[in-house]
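User: We ran a pulldown and think these components assemble together. Before we commit to crystallization trials, I'd like a predicted model of the whole complex to look at. Sequences follow.
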Amino acid sequence: MLPLSGERINAKGIISEKLDSVDTLRGSSTLKRGFAHMQKNGVVMDVTNVEQALIAQEAGAVSVMVLDKLPSEVRKAGGVARTASIKIIEEIMDSVTIPVMAKCRIGHVSEALVLQETDVDMIDESEVLTPADELRHIWKWDFTTPVVNGARSLAEALRRVEEGASMIRTKGEPGTGNVAEAITHIKKVNDELRTIKSIYDSGDNQDLVRIAREFKVSYDIVEQTAKLGRLPVVNFAAGGIATPADAAYLMSLGCDGIFVGSGIFNADDAQERANAIVLATTFWNESDKVKEAQKMIDERQSIHGLDVKTLELRMQDRGGLA
Amino acid sequence: MSLNLGVLSIQGDVNENILSIKAAIDALDIDGTVTSVRTPDEISKVDGLVIPGGESTTIGQLSLFNGALKILKEKIEQGMPVLGICAGMILLSKTVKDKVVGKIDQPLLNILDIKLERNSFGRQRESFESDISLNSIGIPTFNGVFIRAPSISDVGSDVEILSKFNGKIIAVKKNNVIGVAFHPELTSDISLHKYFVNLTNTLKN
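Assistant: Here's a predicted model for the assembly, 527 residues in total across the polymer chains.
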């Protein structure tokens, strides 16, 4: 039993139809958020081709995320980053049995519709790609396919949930191999959750509505979240994860699971690293197993990390004000 | 003696099942507890186990790695009640194929003699909710939540069919083993979890 509240009645993404004369419902919050619940305690791996997708599945990934270029390559290439080739997404969908996700640009409704029509299992409205609209995110209630969004704070997370996101992940700083920003973001979300929960517990509605105005969201979603003491949707860590220990630490901070972008397939020991990061995510609270996982990788093969202070492009700022 | 129930905590929606089992124990007013279990040692101590929804390849590979798969198989064959949900039902089966990819090789418990097809109703966009019935175990209507769900096309002679949806088998039972293609833990209806807690309680005493 689970509080999967937050259904938007008559949302366009909900489809009532008869399947062989039996009434069915598709695209409900239960189904879209429920999909994310099935990913919990798992690792979603960024891939750019079938070969990488098969390595990810073999390693025990719960899903693959298809991109045209890995985030670190996007960073190097500059220019405009768009959604991946549909042909490649379909090739991957025909090759693996685990779910296939793909990224679209922030605010780019038609890219998202194309991905929905392609039948990907989840859409990531992602700051790794160049935003199409800095001020408006996609109204995700219109989609039957669930959508995940990045967030750096509780305010950003709740704004995305209010737009219909079925899952949240930290933004971190993608393509850096530097986990510091992801840690900062999840700690900020946790801290803000503790704050609103204590306000709720004290019965101070006057202060809760102040928070809602500061967050630029409705009072209802703040109240619901404060009552739960956690986000009303599944919350993963993402952005800069490069090693098994990175993954284990984020799990210990209360994340529901892990997205790994460049950290695996830009490392020189991708296969071992994929296995090791899955092990460390699953057994994050068994230190002997995390050590065993960390031993499977060679630090000399890790992605070359970037100091966030020196970056010209901070992907995490994209769409952050909206 | 107090009833000791477990939810296999490798990957998937573990907490949702713990909440449902807890609610079922309370509703039945049984002296029992439910915990998440992962290590062979933890698994060896439970009287009944839920294998939750998640990704069956992930749960299979990791429970092979930490030795959970071996003790699970031993305990289920010795009569421990188990409720396999979606990925959990896949793990209980003998052989599986995927609707698109075809034959697949993944670690399985090899307990239920069923012909199972993964992703049988399509991808996530085709995931659906619909009323189903489990009449033979006293649950006339239930809100079936099917997420990239598997289905069964055929069962061995010792496997009982509990429910069908549009001709596809979606729930089965063989003595102490129950497999369902849908997610009761994503609804507020605890009747299936209650049935399972009752079954475990009866078999223990």
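The domain at 3-204 of chain B is CATH 3.40.50.880 (Rossmann fold). That may be worth checking against your pulldown data before setting up trials.

User: Thanks, that helps.
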